[in-house]
Amino acid sequence: MSFICIASDNYKVVFSWNEIFNNELGKSIYILNGNDGKPASALDNRIALISPKDEMTGRRYAKGLQKIVVEKVK
After folding, report:
1. Which terminus of the chain has a lower count of CB atoms within 10 Å, N or C?
2. Total number of domains constituting the chain
């Protein structure tokens, strides 16, 4: 299974099932729905997804998260 996180600008961040559920990385994937006490609706980029335990950070950060598609890998 894969989790495809799609931002409002169509940027895609992908996680595998094993990364999320069978790895330490999965304990630190965050979907942020606010910042500094402000709700996501008051922020420019709305909902954000971050993965701070990635060794090469930034590639799996998404601003303006619109949806998460879960699909079976073919």
Report:
1. C
2. 1
What pTM did the predictor assign? 0.80
Question: In the chain, what is the straight-line distance between the N-terminal and C-terminal CA atoms, in Å?
Answer: 9
Q: Do 64 and 47 meet the contact criterion of CB atoms below 8 Å apart?
A: yes
Question: Tokens at residue 33, please?
Answer: 């729905």
* Greater pLDDT, 55 or 23: 23
Gap between the Cα atoms of 21 and 31, Å rounded: 16
Q: Which residue has the tokens 């998404």?
A: 62
- What SS3 state is found at 19? helix
Contact 40, 34 (CB under 8 A): yes
Expressed as residue numbers, the domain containing 51 is 2-71
